[in-house]
Amino acid sequence: MIKIYHNNRCSKSRAAYQLLEENHAEFEVQEYLKEVPTIKELQDILSMLKMKPLDLIRKTETIFREKYSGKDLTDVEWIDIMVENPILIERPIVIKDGKAAIGRPIENIIDLLKDPK
Cα separation of 72 and 13, whole Å? Predict the structure, then answer.
């Protein structure tokens, strides 16, 4: 089963959603601004992406620039911040068979869908 962490107001997220539909993929949608990922979910996503929490944060968001830019925080603190402010989570994220990809660029998701396992 494929899962997309989706924000319908984001053009890249809408493009990823459309790509999944065009590929007739069976997928689950989590609108992560309404249904915020848990700490455990974010830890799992980060593990699949092989990323540090700070790498998953949208640094162009106003809240990041105003409150967090330049702060030296721990991984645990960054994850807590993403749970408290899900708008900071990079998007879209697609998960398939224990692997994940961020849809920037969309080719990352195309490659994930092509991966046989």
Answer: 29
